UniProtKB/TrEMBL annotation:
The keyword Transferase applies. InterPro entries: Aminotransferase_I/II_large, Kynurenine-oxoglutarate_AT, PyrdxlP-dep_Trfase, PyrdxlP-dep_Trfase_major, PyrdxlP-dep_Trfase_small. Its EC number is 2.6.1.-. Keywords: Aminotransferase, Pyridoxal phosphate, Transferase. Transmembrane segments: none annotated. Pfam families: Aminotran_1_2 (PF00155). SUPFAM superfamilies: PLP-dependent transferases. Its cofactor is pyridoxal 5'-phosphate. This is Pyridoxal phosphate-dependent aminotransferase. Residues 40-394 form the Aminotransferase class I/classII large domain. GO terms for molecular function: transaminase activity.
Length: 401
């Protein structure tokens, strides 16, 4: 039984069998609840401050200069493809041909959908880390695939991947591993050793790998993001997905991209061309400039989010939550059992009334609802004063215990 979303009775009878289990996403319900109760919305993960002014100006310039106002090239504008290639070289030492190994997409969301539609045969198994980002299950279903979860388990204050469980999840029907690091919603960043083991498994079992690395720049403390594509034998089997939304705080622009071998990029493009064909013309030029920002931008982003993480996690601890301190992303997952609660969905439906804050029950990202029941996710990509106010409001939960 999938629990990715809360089924919407009005729509459900019309939905085809593949999508019947996916109703309206939980974000819609929780955002509506935030609006109707005047709550602080720490549910959906979007920043409440726009990204760099010069990047916004670059988009305005492109619009005014008439760049990208008509259909841009199918693979994306050359400026952006070159910028993605240069970014992979500068950050990770990866050589990516901007003409054959980069494809610009309508956000990472379209990249995920196109990759699944292009690479998964009906009946193929797709092994993915659970809890899943909310579009994975639906995209695997749209491709006719079967998702096989490997659950990240709480261990010493973080969620960890059990490499034996991963190995056991792979069968002769497995086509593809769908990896996400830094991982939403747990904030786990897979270590170099874990990634090396994932890579060895993929090579040994001859699997394709789709790796969602949209939080590549949002890593904290001494955590390090290492692209899966950089491990031996991975270049030719890996589709790497990233996006401007999280890195530059322009989630509404929906500029994403994949990198991979020419064969993989061509395959994904075959599906992508019939989804949106192209998108976000002028924004593509702006993101090309954004990717070339100096290291100081990326360092500043990390420093700012580290402070926000610390602000919100301190408030959550004060309020009595169990806190899994994230090493990446802009989410923190909490355990509500120390508050005497056990059902995250019920808790999140009540929280706006009890404390004026909206969060997301992590159970909706699990097939195994039991495993996800006591966890609740908060986003910290918000202004410091908003996080402080949220912490103050949440403190009332501790008072009433
Ligand atoms: C936000 C997010 C996406 C979607 O990115 P867009 O570029 O906004 O489409 C994909 N994967 C994960 C894990 C995300 O958190």
């Amino acid at each position: 039984m999938a629990a990715m979303s809360i089924p919407d009775r009005a729509v459900r009878p019309l939905l085809n069998r593949r999508l019947a289990e996916f109703g309206t996403t939980v974000f819609a319900e929780m955002s509506a609840l935030a609006a109707s109760t005047g709550s602080i919305n720490l549910g959906q993960g979007f920043p409440d401050t726009d990204g760099p002014e010069e990047v916004r100006e670059a988009a305005v310039r492109a619009l005014r200069d008439g760049r990208g106002n008509q259909y841009p090239p199918g693979p994306g504008v050359p400026e952006l493809r070159r910028a993605v290639s240069e970014h992979q070289r500068r950050r990770y030492g990866l050589a990516v041909d901007p003409d054959t190994e980069v494809l610009v997409t309508a956000g990472a969301t379209e990249a995920i959908a196109a990759a699944m539609l292009a690479l998964v045969e009906p009946g193929d198994e797709v092994v993915a880390l659970e809890p899943y980002y909310d579009s994975y299950a639906a995209c695997v279903a749209m491709a006719g695939g079967r998702r096989v979860p490997v659950t990240l388990r709480p261990h010493e204050g973080t969620f960890r991947l059990d490499l034996d469980e991963l190995r056991d999840a792979v069968t002769d029907r497995t086509r593809l591993l769908l990896v996400n690091t830094p991982h939403n919603p747990t904030g786990t960043v897979l270590t170099r050793e874990e990634l090396a083991a994932v890579a060895r498994l993929a090579v040994e079992r001859d699997l394709l790998v789709v790796t969602d690395e949209v939080y590549e720049h949002l890593v904290f403390d001494d955590a390090e993001h290492v692209p899966l594509a950089s491990f031996p034998g991975m270049r030719e089997r890996t589709v790497t997905i990233s996006s401007a939304g999280k890195t530059f705080s322009f989630t509404g622009w929906k500029v994403g991209w994949i990198t991979g071998s020419p064969e993989l990029v061509t395959a994904v493009r075959s599906a992508k061309q019939f989804l949106t064909y192209v998108s976000a013309g002028p924004f593509q030029y702006a993101v090309a400039e954004a990717l070339a920002l100096p290291d100081s931008y990326f360092d500043g982003l990390r420093a700012g989010l580290t402070a926000k993480r610390d602000l919100l996690t301190a408030g959550l601890e004060e309020a009595g939550f169990g806190v899994f301190r994230p090493s990446g992303t802009y989410f923190v997952t909490t355990d509500i059992r120390p508050l005497g609660e056990s059902d995250g969905v019920a808790f999140c439906r009540e929280l706006p009334k009890r404390a004026g804050v909206v969060a997301i029950p992590t159970a909706v990202f699990y097939d195994d609802r039991e495993a996800g029941a006591p966890f609740v996710r908060f986003a910290f990509c918000k202004k410091d004063e908003v996080l402080r106010e949220a912490a103050t409001r949440l403190a009332s939960l501790a008072d009433r215990r």
